[in-house]
Amino acid sequence: MTFRRRLLRLWVLLILVPSLLTLQAQDDEPPPGLTIHVVQRGETLFRIAQHYGLTVDELAQLNSLLDANSIQVGQRLLVPAQPTAIGETHTVQPGETLRSIAELYGVTVDDLARWNSITNVDSIYAGQVIVVTLVEFVEDANVPSPTPTDLPTSAPTAAPSTAVASAEDVGGEVVYSTVIHTVARGETLYRIAQQYGVTVNAIMRANQITNPDTIYVGQQLAIPGVGEPQLATTLPVPLTGLEILPLILTEGQTGRIRITASTPVTISGTFLDRFLNIADEEGGLRKTALVGIPVGTTAGIYPLNLSVTGTDGVPVDVAINVQVISGGYGRESIRLLSGREDLLDEATEDAEMAILARVMSDFTPERYFDAAMGLPAAAPMSSRFGNTRSYNGGAFERIHAGTDFAGGPGTPILAPAPGWVVLADDLNIRGTATVIDHGWGVYTGYWHQSARYVSVGDYVATGQVIGAIGSSGRVTGAHLHWELWVGGVPVDPMQWVSVNFS
Ligand SMILES: [Zn+2]
């Protein structure tokens, strides 16, 4: 290709790219990360740019607009898919509705729906971050001031010199503050942002972070726009609280649903097509259900359905939308010690899984743990939970259901929490195995041991030596495989090292 032709091609590209963007704005599938905003009567480019956290220039450039004043009602504009509207935000708590939130902030349901592009008011979910006020910028002389028609019909009027809503702006009742998040091991800025429903950029701006990979364990991050919970729940009497920990659940992890009441209640419920095992405390005033989110659960919004019966004996249904996000698990290839290939036999696997499922799916109404768990061995972690595995070059079809610790043979294995030994056996795949029942449907398992120091029926205390690391069963070498089940579902045990689910 001659230089001239190459230059020509470059020019064609330069001309084509903006027009491609314009073309894409016409059909229904915007490019990844972008969505379409249809210009409404009274809107200006300034107003739309502000809503999506862009400057007028950025928005004009994104849409190849030559004249910022020429937009028309009904025109379709490409905008970032996650609106980062400027204004105070509210994280939806379990039991809140768009109506109750609107009342809390003194705005209308229509305002909230419009500011957050919500088309179905019943679609909001616990953990969703929604904009509850809009704030005007008037100091920037480079952009035209919004005309009165720009103002949302019932938006509170902000003080002209401030860029952030103060308590007075929304009726004097709301105390606005920023949540401080302490970075835990294994967390990324992306994951933290997802957890709070804010953008990575918003956290980076608020904490003056220039490189998102530089966060460290123990770092305290200000999460902008996330206030202390302002509850606007519509829970039926006699319920006084409904808490989900964490507020946004993750595939392969544990969640805790806790309900409090002013008079004793009985509760039944379902989540992810499973019946909840509900523990009872304080004479029926506090109910707790631990849920394991199976690996493979598709990210999305799922209903938590509860049936609550108080002293009047009349059951009341409560439905909460709960968000489940992806666990982001990876893949790994495993090569077994030679001579142990027959342990990949499916019948052997099924038979052993049946033994475990029988032991680890029971629900013990007592709880023996009262803190986050300790680590089961003083050894480095060699494989995380949740990866899809291929053995000896086979298909990626087995999920790694625990966390591996690469300790040398004979390294002590410690009970990470109190409980009763319910299995002490020699299995084909899992080798010398122990299972501890910690109550409330929580079990931990210890596979591939070289020695076991406990028997079925023993009660173990936190830190007690229960066995030694070995290489029995289906292994590539000596290590401890640590497994944790909740409600019959294997979940990531490492979450229990940082979170106290009691
Ligand atoms: Zn393992």
What does this structure look like?
The chain has 502 residues and is α+β, with helices and mostly antiparallel strands. It has four domains: 3-80, LysM domain (Membrane-bound Lytic Murein Transglycosylase D, Chain A), CATH 3.10.350; 89-223, no CATH class; 239-325, Immunoglobulin-like (Sandwich), CATH 2.60.40; 331-498, Glucose Permease (Domain IIA) (Distorted Sandwich), CATH 2.70.70.10. It has nine helices and 28 strands. The strands form seven sheets. Strands 17, 20, 21, 22, 23, 24, 25, 26, 27 and 28 form a ten-stranded antiparallel sheet that branches. A hairpin with a 6-residue loop joins β18 and β19. α2 packs across α3 (56-62) and α4 (98-105) packs across α5. The longest helix has 22 residues, at 3-24. The chain is globular, with a radius of gyration of 27 Å. The chain starts with a helix and ends with a helix. Residues 1-27 and 136-177 have low confidence and may be disordered. The structure holds zinc ion (ZN). Zinc ion (ZN) binds at residues 383, 400, 402, 404, 481.
